[in-house]
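Risk register update: the risk of archive-format incompatibility is retired. Evidence:
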Amino acid sequence: MHSSLGAVGFPRWTRMGTEQACRAGFGLWPDTQVRLLRLGAGLRFVNRVHEQAVGLAGPLALAMGMHMDHYSHVWKDADALADKLRVFDAAAGRQSMHRLNEEYPAVDCALLALLEQRCGIADCLVLPPDVLR
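Archived output:
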């Protein structure tokens, strides 16, 4: 990781129904997941569920040419997913916060792959530190 960066996020492809279909729209793509973080005195995490890193030691870079695959909606049945979402709700201290929703549009993951190929594997979009508030 470049020494001036505070963190790197990766687009997450959420596979739905089949491994060839990705959920898109409504903020689901790029569903950026921050995974590489530089340790610093101000770094902390907020929220018990869907935690967010605050106090990064530099700007956030989005690695546009590398994605993470999320297969739980392909590999788990509806009951197992519903159980997982109930655990998330309990941890967040809320009810019905998480639910399975069929109205999110799906696109062929090949379309996202074409967009990713337009970015080189080392291409990043660097955002200023105050973007993650």
